[in-house]
Design brief:
single chain, 413 residues, alpha/beta, Beta-Lactamase, Rossmann fold, nine-stranded mixed beta sheet, 13 helices, 15 strands, 34% helix
Length: 413
């Protein structure tokens, strides 16, 4: 084993390279590479290394100094959708919907912490013992969640969800059989006409992906404001686009900027529509207010197990923001929400649109949902894949927006 495959010697070489970098200015990747090459070839013993060994050492050093260490290989692999680091010894990946353990690990907690600090620093976030939980993102748009000590018992926890380099389109979702062409055309008319749509589903059901796909149908001349905890949406085809992101409070005295703050300020930015990546708290009240005050066609996502469960959760979230009578909350919701699209991940790991329902108002104080489409299973293939189809089950009752836009077609809706 060559001396630089030993961790201690490798770390000494890495520290020497870092000491040569001028931290007082922005240093390019090419400059870093030149410093690494000089450091490698200055050593006499390097003559004992073969070309392949030198190239591997160069790659490892560059990833450690400038990138994300051993994770760089995984991040560069577009077939991997999720990277789960449970401390230094356990790394799991998701590929094609299947989770498996990776055969590599971090050599020390110091290396893992260094990777985490690089990630959060690039997103202008801070993570430490005083603030051990943070959401961030990578340059490629991948979503990052970090949980550190003392909250994480088995060491720093890092979860990276990678999104496709090219956003998945509605055409792609049809090809994946996640939705039928009929349902996609139906939703297209609703989006163009300005129906307020809530996308619900469990973790990993594809809510953000579906929200991106829905946004394809927004007319290109409109002004859109997107609001997210960590910017993930990849809206295409909209020139007049404003993207806003929350900010955590930090020790330097910068105050927290929440989803609620951003929704309120977005109303002064003359948006045609507001797109909120996900509602988790009292910001639900602000979204409902925005949807009720002339911002038709607004879109949002939330965690829920069904369309009806999404309504219960919105009620709860509104109450987190303000103590209002339940009848008043329900009237606000019935007025603001037009359509709920519920997504799910089936037992064969496929993602499907399971339900499209219309908010049809209130009856005796209870929500009336009008199911428009519902996924019906039709058995399984020999390989265990679920057979089924999203079938039309009802007709839209509130057609005024469709009629105003000229897209009303009785044979479709």
């Amino acid at each position: 084993m060559h001396e630089y495959t030993d961790r201690q010697n490798f770390m000494l070489l890495k520290e020497e390279i870092i000491s040569r970098i001028d931290m007082s200015r922005e240093v390019s990747d090419d400059e870093i590479k030149d410093i690494i090459r000089d450091s490698i070839f200055e050593r006499k013993k390097e003559n004992l290394m073969g070309l392949a060994e030198r190239e591997e050492l160069f790659r490892r050093l560059f990833y450690e100094v400038r990138r994300l260490g051993i994770l760089e290989e995984l991040i560069a692999d577009s077939s991997i959708t999720e990277i789960m680091v449970n401390g230094i010894n356990d790394i799991f990946i998701e590929r094609n919907g299947a989770i498996s353990r990776w055969d590599r690990h971090f050599d020390s907690e110091e290396s893992l912490r260094s990777v985490i600090q690089q990630i959060v620093a690039r997103s202008n976030r801070v993570v430490n013992e005083a603030s051990p939980i943070v959401d961030a993102r990578l340059e490629n748009g991948a979503r990052v969640n970090v949980v550190m000590n003392p909250v994480a018992i088995n060491g720093p926890i890092l979860t990276i969800r990678r999104f496709p380099d090219d956003p998945i389109s509605m055409k792609d979702l049809i090809g994946f059989t996640s939705i039928t062409p009929e349902a996609a055309e139906y939703l297209k008319r609703l989006v163009i006409s300005g129906y307020n749509i809530f996308v619900s589903g469990g973790t990993g059901s594809g809510k953000t992906t579906f929200l991106n796909a829905l946004s394809e149908y927004i007319p290109g001349e409109e002004r859109i404001v997107t609001i997210e905890d960590s910017a993930e949406l990849q809206i295409r085809g909209i020139e007049n686009l404003v993207s806003l992101e929350t900010r955590n409070a930090n020790v330097e005295g910068l105050r927290e900027i929440t989803i609620r703050d951003l929704i309120k300020t977005s109303l002064r930015m003359r948006p045609d529509r507001i797109i909120v990546g996900e509602i988790r708290d009292g910001a639900a009240l602000d979204f409902l207010s925005a949807a009720n005050t002339g911002h038709d066609g607004s879109l949002c996502t939330g965690h829920a197990n069904s369309a009806r469960d999404m309504l219960s959760r919105i009620e709860t979230m509104v109450l987190m923001g303000m103590d209002l009578p339940l009848p008043a909350i329900r009237r606000q919701m019935a007025s603001a929400i037009d359509i709920i699209v519920h997504l799910g991940r089936l037992r064969d790991r496929s993602r499907k649109v399971l339900e499209i329902s219309e908010m049809a108002g209130l009856a005796e104080g209870e929500f009336v949902l009008n199911p428009l489409f519902r996924f019906e299973e039709e058995g399984e293939t020999k390989s265990g894949l679920i057979k089924g189809k999203l079938k039309k089950t009802g007709s839209l009752s509130y057609t005024e927006k469709l009629q105003r836009s000229g897209l009303y077609d009785k044979s479709i809706v």
